[in-house]
Amino acid sequence: MTCKRSKVTFQRRENSSVRFHCCVPQCTASSKFNSVLSFHAFPKDKDVQKKWVVNIRRDNFKVTQKKRVCSRHFRCSDLIEPLNLGGRRRLEKEAIPVLFHWNNFTVPAEQPGVLKGIKTDQLHDDDPSMDAIADHYHHDYIHTSAARDHTEDLLVEIASLQKQIEEISLSSRFCLERFAASDDDIRFYTRFATHAHLMAFWRLVEPAAGKVVTMSRAQAAANTDDLFDTAGAMSLQPIDEFFLFMTYLSLGLMQRDLAHRFRIHQSAVSRIINTWAKFLDMVLRAVEIWLDKKTVKAHMPEVFQHYSDTQVILYCAELRCQIPNPYQSDAFSTYKPQWTFKGLIGMAPHGAVTFVSSLYKGTISDREILKHSGIEAFVKPKMAIMVDEGFLVENCVSCKVHIPSVLSKRAQLSGSEIWKMQSLARLRRHVEHLIGRVKENKIFSTVIPLSLTGSVNQLYSVACHLVNYQNGSLVKNWPDTD
What we know:
Elements: E1 39-41, H1 46-56, E2 68-70, E3 79-80, E4 90-91, H2 128-171, H3 176-179, H4 183-190, H5 195-223, H6 227-234, H7 238-251, H8 255-262, H9 266-285, H10 293-298, E5 310-320, E6 340-347, E7 353-361, H11 366-373, E8 384-386, E9 400-402, H12 415-439, H13 442-445, H14 456-470
Helix pairs in contact: 5-9, 6-9, 7-9, 8-9, 9-14, 12-14
């Protein structure tokens, strides 16, 4: 017989001088807090007492007057409620505790076999049947324990299988999370030195990124009838849209390739690239990267000790572009036999990017690019700039210019001029390394297609500014020798 038990509530007994604790394993009931439970001593009848001990599963248990079993472990029919208020609850004769945590407080079914036909009230300590009863309960305990262990093993196996399913699902998706554990992969796909570098940058732009992505998706939904496009775009989280853009910038993959990798429509790829190019360009240009003279001086590397007044090293970068139509022939470079874009980039002596100009057509002169770039507004008379020997701007700025000597009509240079030229050549290598980092992005190391001419300015600006976030310092305290 079973009975449905209501939820037990506990109330502190203020006037209780004697406190009991239930001795059943896993039961924490105490008479200190009790308005419902009653606590019952072990019966004096040795036969019934042994059954109690076997049922509560206490090995080498010594029964004393203070040991108690709470009323939760007895059937409702075994409890005799008091007739008057304040009376004590009693147990039926030969009542045995059968409701426990390990059987979910349900009465176990009667087991056939050794107990069938045995009248326990006729058993004695030396009766062989008593050993049979004990063996039966011991076997039941072992069986229950084994079942519990098997259940735990199954739960562990289920958790392991769920983890494997998640890993398989993750490995089939092209997303940032898939490569988060590999800094080599992060470097390959994004040019950030480590996953930590990438996440540090993401935390800077994330607050504004969510709004931009939401607005971009809304505009895409309003301007297209392609339901697949909108659904595909919605399948990427903002951080994975950022990862797609960085993968595009780093590897120069075709948009169709990216659509297959990220499992979205090709038009969604185009929208994501354009959105993130505009957004990052706007965010990064808003950051003041030009450093004052005092800051530059504080971070001046030892290798610049002979040129400690240098504020910025300027370099005119050229990017190859696809041959345009005849009306765009003014992009032809007179310096190199190819069609190019030119941009001015400035680096502080310790390696930070401090100036990025827009891109101009390849036919622009050094003087013109210096004038249109806006660098003149930053340099002061007491500063110095360092440039390549091909960058002829000595009379265009009010500050000092460190530039290698040229032979001109002389047959040879003096010793000091040779030393200066070699020294400047070594120092200029640092800014060449900087340009190398920018051109690690495959878009700029190959011929730029005409289809990108509308966004190449933004892409180039983002690539240049990101150098400050992606890597460590370019310039170290190298010895002044090769």
